[in-house]
Write a structure and sequence with these properties.
Elements: E1 5-10, H1 14-25, E2 30-33, H2 40-45, H3 47-66, H4 80-105, E3 108-110, E4 114-116, E5 121-124, E6 127-136, E7 140-142, H5 156-159, E8 168-172, H6 176-187, E9 191-195, H7 207-219, E10 223-225, E11 230-236, E12 239-244, E13 249-252, E14 254-257, E15 261-263, H8 270-273, E16 296-298, H9 309-324, E17 338-340, E18 346-349, H10 353-359, E19 363-370, H11 375-378, E20 384-391, E21 396-403, H12 407-419, H13 424-428
Parallel strand pairs: 1-2, 1-6, 2-3, 6-16, 8-9, 8-14, 9-10
Antiparallel strand pairs: 4-5, 5-6, 7-15, 11-12, 12-13, 17-18, 18-21, 19-20, 20-21
Helix pairs in contact: 1-4, 1-9, 3-4, 3-6
Length: 449
């Protein structure tokens, strides 16, 4: 059978775009359909605008710290529309870059919703096309619990486009998105409360890191309310009242839910192709990213796997080179580095201390906390934390965790060493760059436990 395309990609986020672009560059006939925005969550309502907002929200501290270094000026003021609209112009620029990359590689970009109608057929823009291979890369979407009044709340999607900046904010959730936006709103001047139903946020991260970050956020006047269940949201004029299971009532101007993201797999016609989904909506795949239907693939958040942009990109590369390059690539998920852009930042690679203890009975933990050099003059109480996890049987460094300025930038370099199998002896004989915070990772000599 002669198909219209060798590969049809549904979703032009980071993973889908990379798979489409590289497949086309390898000579395949490729189409990619996107109904919303090129670049997906990361470019439009995720990593990129969030990082820009983090930069913007940190200037309040920077202006205050400048006085210790001899810089004085009139009290600064914050213009929300300027930040919001400058961010939007940058996102629009990136949308154009994504389109140029795809079309420049020879992929056809279709700005419409695509749905499978059969094993190899796709309905799009009023017509039906066929493809030998189909890739589902539709990402994830914010998930909001069914709480009375939940319709009054926003998610991270809307937070990037607020008409007015609020004076009082309640953020519901305990994942990295909730923690990052707590820092953003507080840094930009809003009274900010974070409400989480569990005893401590950032579940899945290293326990010591979680506790350290909680202390740091409290020092920044973020109201952390753990073991707090939101039972209802009520609208009172222009304000909202958040009610909790303990009987508290918190009045705010904005309620934001950051309670997780669900696979965005509904309405794609997967059932017409025989593709199965889990109860959560995730599309299960094997190590080659094949669904239960051999010619239908899925990558990224829609699979329910690791929700990180670089992971989706790596998976997209596997699709392209395995289908059209004659290779058999896979992604190693063992030591994937990541960052949380709370303030101060988190950078992490490898297992948590808790998980490492289960895998490495002779685990040695090296840990250091200190005040960054910058704040010896400012007097700010912010502290940095660094941790190395070492397998005592082999001396191999299996994990690194950090809380502090530019933690992601520092841990990115450490992840190369850890993935290359570096030992603690390798770290010890590495000469540090002085004076930097990063040198602490090569000067920790005595295990603390």
């Amino acid at each position: 059978m002669r198909f219209d395309y060798d590969l049809f990609v549904i979703g032009a986020g980071s993973g889908g775009t990379r798979a489409a672009r590289m497949s086309a560059a390898l000579g395949a006939r490729v189409a990619v359909a996107e109904e919303r925005y090129l670049g997906g969550t990361c470019v439009n309502v995720g990593c990129v605008p969030k990082k820009l907002f983090v930069y913007g929200s940190h200037y309040a501290e920077d202006f205050a710290d400048g006085a210790a270094y001899g810089w004085t000026s009139a009290p600064p003021s914050f213009d929300w529309p300027a930040l919001r609209d400058n961010k939007t112009r940058e996102i629009e620029r990136l949308n154009g870059i994504y389109r140029n990359l795809l079309e420049g590689a020879g992929a056809e970009v279709i700005d419409a919703r695509a749905e499978l109608t059969g094993p190899h057929s796709i309905a799009i823009d009023g017509q039906t096309v066929t493809a030998e291979h189909v890739l589902v890369a539709t990402g994830s979407w914010p998930s909001v619990p069914t709480v009375p009044g939940a319709e009054f709340a926003i998610t991270s999607n809307e937070a990037f486009y607020l008409e007015r900046f609020p004076e009082r904010v309640a953020i519901v959730g305990g994942g990295y998105i909730a923690v990052e936006f707590a820092g953003i709103f507080r840094g930009l001047g809003a009274e900010t409360a974070l409400l989480y139903r569990g005893p401590l946020f950032l579940r899945g991260f290293d326990g010591g890191i979680r506790r350290f970050v909680a202390d740091e956020l409290r020092h920044k006047d973020i109201d952390l309310r753990f073991d707090t269940e939101v039972t209802a949201i009520e609208r009172h004029g222009d304000a909202f009242v958040v009610r909790t299971g303990s009987g508290e009532a918190l009045e705010v101007d904005l309620v934001m839910y950051a309670t997780g993201r669900a696979p965005n797999s509904a309405g794609l016609g997967l059932e017409h192709a025989g593709v199965t989904r889990t109860e959560s909506g995730a599309v299960p795949v094997d190590t080659g990213y094949r669904t239960n239907v051999p010619h239908v693939f899925a990558i990224g958040d829609v699979t329910g796997g690791v929700q990180l942009t670089p992971v989706a990109i790596a998976e997209g590369m596997c699709i392209a080179y395995n289908l059209f390059g004659g290779e058999a690539r896979t992604v190693d998920y063992e030591s994937v580095a990541t960052a949380v852009f709370c303030q101060p930042n988190i950078g992490t690679v490898g297992p948590t201390e808790e998980r490492a203890r289960e895998r490495f009975p002779a685990l040695r933990v090296f840990e250091s906390t200190f005040r960054p050099m910058k704040h010896t003059l400012t007097g700010r109480e912010e502290r940095t934390m660094m941790k190395l996890l070492v397998d005592g049987d082999t001396d191999r460094v299996v994990g690194a965790h950090m809380v502090g300025p530019e933690a992601g930038e520092i841990v990115q370099g450490l992840s190369v060493a850890i993935n290359a199998g570096a030992t603690k002896a390798d770290f010890d004989r590495t000469i540090g760059i002085h004076p930097t915070a990063a040198e602490e990772f090569v000067t920790m000599r005595e295990a603390v436990r």
